[in-house]
Specification:
Layout: H1 3-37, E1 62-68, H2 71-92, E2 99-105, H3 116-130, H4 134-139, H5 159-165, E3 168-172, H6 173-187, H7 191-199, E4 206-209, H8 212-221, E5 225-228
Parallel strand pairs: 1-2, 1-5, 2-3, 3-4
């Protein structure tokens, strides 16, 4: 065979050989890069801390952590988490109890990690800080807007409903400290007293963590797939 046809065949063969060689080189390159990143030693293995034991449960077949930093993101995260439960159950037959779901409430979504009592007491101030308006601002003075729903709305996606399925809500400790300082300044109370009060009044399924960013890091180290909820 001569001419362009032969040239094409030769290039095809060379290309196929390069592809096969590359396929073998990729794992080797990745291994080399991993070794270089760790100083030539073994692959990096995170150190599990006792404080992060809440992320471990051998019964969880799949794990997801959702990161939120705003009021809208917190609301959207509830629906994404509910979809995660629903789709796994309908398409795979996996019960909610077999799924690990963690929603991180940090920065401006932190207040949603507290119960109705805290919102009834500080709701107006929190609503102003979160720039909630209209009906949302009014609702904030009667309780946590995302915690529960009206009695006749049994299918509402709420913190309480997700907590009943096993979801956990990681409340940022650093943001809580900042929130307490702001509330104390507005009310004339002592910041340490307000913070103590907030920490004692978490929403169902919520727990206080050192910082939201730490919870995100630890969740991924514990095998949780990561999802950032923008709004």
């Amino acid at each position: 065979m001569r001419g362009p046809a032969r040239m094409a065949d030769r290039r095809t063969i060379i290309g196929a050989g390069a592809l096969l060689a590359g396929a073998g080189a990729v794992p080797a390159l990745a291994e080399a890069q991993q070794g270089a990143a760790s100083g030539g030693g073994p692959a990096y293995t995170p150190q599990f801390e006792p404080q992060d034991a809440w992320l471990d449960d051998s019964a969880k077949r799949h794990r997801m952590v959702l990161d939120t930093t705003s009021a809208d993101a917190a609301a959207s995260a509830l629906f994404y988490a509910d979809n995660f439960y629903t789709a796994n159950h309908s398409a795979y037959g996996i019960a909610p109890q077999a799924l690990g779901v963690a929603i991180v409430l940090r920065h401006m979504s932190t207040p949603f990690g507290f119960n109705d009592a805290m919102w009834k007491k500080y709701g107006a101030l929190i609503a102003a800080q979160l720039k909630l308006e209209g009906a949302r601002a009014i609702a904030a003075t009667t309780g946590n807007p995302l915690l529960s729903a009206a009695k006749d709305d049994k299918d509402a996606v709420t913190i309480a409903a997700l907590a009943a399925k096993g979801a956990r809500f990681a409340v940022c400790g650093m943001a809580t400290h900042g929130l307490a300082m702001g509330l104390a300044k507005k009310t004339g109370a002592k910041a340490e007293d307000v913070e103590k009060e907030l920490r004692a009044n978490l929403a169902p399924g919520a727990l206080m963590v050192a910082a939201g960013v730490v919870a995100i890091n630890r969740a991924q180290e514990h095998g949780y797939a990561f999802m950032y909820v923008a709004e």
